[in-house]
UniProtKB/TrEMBL annotation:
<feature type="domain" description="Glutaminase A central">
    <location>
        <begin position="344"/>
        <end position="688"/>
    </location>
</feature>
<feature type="domain" description="Glutaminase A N-terminal">
    <location>
        <begin position="106"/>
        <end position="338"/>
    </location>
</feature>
<dbReference type="InterPro" id="IPR008928">
    <property type="entry name" value="6-hairpin_glycosidase_sf"/>
</dbReference>
<feature type="signal peptide">
    <location>
        <begin position="1"/>
        <end position="20"/>
    </location>
</feature>
<dbReference type="GO" id="GO:0005975">
    <property type="term" value="P:carbohydrate metabolic process"/>
</dbReference>
<dbReference type="InterPro" id="IPR052743">
    <property type="entry name" value="Glutaminase_GtaA"/>
</dbReference>
<dbReference type="InterPro" id="IPR033433">
    <property type="entry name" value="GtaA_N"/>
</dbReference>
<dbReference type="Pfam" id="PF16335">
    <property type="entry name" value="GtaA_6_Hairpin"/>
</dbReference>
<keyword id="KW-0732">Signal</keyword>
<dbReference type="InterPro" id="IPR032514">
    <property type="entry name" value="GtaA_central"/>
</dbReference>
<dbReference type="Pfam" id="PF17168">
    <property type="entry name" value="DUF5127"/>
</dbReference>
<protein>
    <recommendedName>
        <fullName>Glutaminase GtaA</fullName>
    </recommendedName>
</protein>
Amino acid sequence: MRLSTSVAALLGFSAELASAVSTFSPARPPSLPLAVKSPYLNSWLSAGSDGGNGGYLAGEWATFWNQQITGWVGLIRVDGVAYTWMGAPKDWPQVVDQTEFSYTSTRSTFVSTVGGKVGLNVTFMSPVTPNDLRRQSLPFTYLDVAVQSIDGATHDVEVYADVSGEWASGDPTALINWDFGTSNGVAYHTFARQDQQEFAEVNQQASWGTWYWSSAEGDGVTYQSGIDVDVRNNFIQNGALANAKDSNFRAVNDNWPVFAFAKGFGSVGSSSVSTLYSLGLTQDNAISFLGEGSGMTTVPSLWKSYFSNGLDAMTFFYNDFGEASSLATELDNKVASDSLAAAGQNYLTITSLSVRQTFGALQFTGTDSAPLVFLKEISSNSDIQTVDVIYPAIPLILYSNPKLLAYLLDPLFQNQENGHYPNTNAIHDLGTFPIAKGYPDGSDEPMPLEECGNMIIMTLAYAQRASDTAYLATHYPILKQWAGYLVDEALIPANQLSTDDFAGTLANQTNLALKGIIGLRAMSEIAKLTGNADDEKTYGDTATSYIAQWQGLGINQDASPPHTTLSYGDGASHGLLYNLYANSLLGFGDFVPRAVYDMQSTFYPTVALEYGVPLDTRHTQTKSDWEMFAAAIASADTRDIFIQKLANWINVTPTNRPLTDLYDAASGDYPGLQFTARPVVGGHFALLALP
Ligand SMILES: *[C@@H]1O[C@H](CO)[C@@H](O)[C@H](O)[C@H]1NC(C)=O
Ligand SMILES: *[C@@H]1O[C@H](CO)[C@@H](O)[C@H](O)[C@H]1NC(C)=O
């Protein structure tokens, strides 16, 4: 794949909006990440032709992952002439000429020229600091805007940016309040729903908490809140704002209140000058949880452990840009060098797009001494702590900081070990985000074999990486309970769902059985590490016996080439054997014989379609996370086919919402369901999580 592609030209976008054509590097994602930091701070720019404009920041609204507009406007004046660099406000001035878009793991950068006179670089940075919980806990994001003269002359330049009340509620008729202040060198607008409803959402947006939209206090900075068209026109006419607050608190959509800053740079020459903004949502409490004790408890946001209030958190974040930038560059470089070394540029195209999306689905809560990380199963019904959504994401989690996996598993252990779940199998999820009330009546989505295998495999994977055998001892009784379920059910799986529940139920799923059997092998290892020698032998013997039988039941040896089946006895069927990955992740060597790896590796290219290898023979759809699990343990040739097809798909797919993991491998489009911004793309790091 080319490193840089003029997708706009390929797609036939004309010059109606932009007179320049942008390059996209390393690819043009279906949707470009702008502010992607937490489940509620999650805003993107649609690019794919299903509904996007090809990836141009000016002339289209940024949207929340669930597609509501998150009003965000950027304007610039050069020698008194106004241009639009972000958003699609009413009667917007001519757009700047976007020439480049690029992304890294933490940044999205748009490079434009303005009237041929000024260069404009707009960088969205959502920090990801897996080993620095204090910084990771802050639900804030940066926007940096830099300008310089590019024609040898000097120019008068003023830059404008606003956000609208749309960030504060998914209900545009909700009433909001706002204010303006300064603190520690930071000028800020704050706005919030008048009717605060803790733990409630409308259209997936939070109905509680306070938003901060900030910039530097000082020279040439003016501010204003007010009616969208008035405030923007004020800037367009004057290049500055009124330093005034609108005192008429009202609904989000009632004369659209916006919160704006303008920065006058004066005369700008060839050296780059810049202005920095930050945006974030502070909520004292994050999650309602049934864990320890008999009733629901309120779990604070983790940032509360480090900062006394939202204002302190905001000023720290704003003034931390220098350090945050270095940490971001460190992570960008680490992902880049590791991905390039593992499988080259196509692989980096995939991994670097997946970092913010994965971390953006995580809510960091609890306290510094006992953090809890809650995951939102974004777009596929918003379950909280879905075990088979955490599982596909663990490659990135293990790669970045294995401790985070324990913080994700802890809520599941706490809920079930305190007697809040009656079934002997492992639970599927803890409810609907942000209310983790569990299923005291055992009525969760039934995926018993999948989740028993997942819990045991993930717990061991964490303990291995973090050298934490105490964790295994602490949870031994319930792990053993789940292993008992696997002894009874793994070899001949009953008719049931696997994690790919959109495909429906099926008996004797070959891939699902393999997960259960590897789960038993993992339980033997857990027994060994905790000094339970009898259990080590019993589970080990059972796993060894099952894996031998499984090869007889699940492989079509007569096919040319041979392959595993989708379900026992259905010789013509096949599917991605992604559960084999766990055998390698946990270092089990020849427990599953090498011949099985080689067989699948030879087989996959024979059934590959244009954009990937189908998930199974029921449909032409596939899952990008499972493709990367399969790729990670395949031969180099087969691995590269998977990776090349996925990287190409990212660049050309018509899908337009934040990266879907489920797509049609023949058409490249949505297969019907529109999965959006799901954290399972952490699985794209499968190559980098192997021991
Ligand atoms: C924008 O980025 C490019 C590439 O890094 C750089 O050469 C240019 O000077 C930057 N422009 C501004 C205005 O900072
Ligand atoms: C599952 O496979 C076993 C072993 O081949 C077989 O005995 C059983 O009938 C199968 N179950 C179903 C529902 O097909």
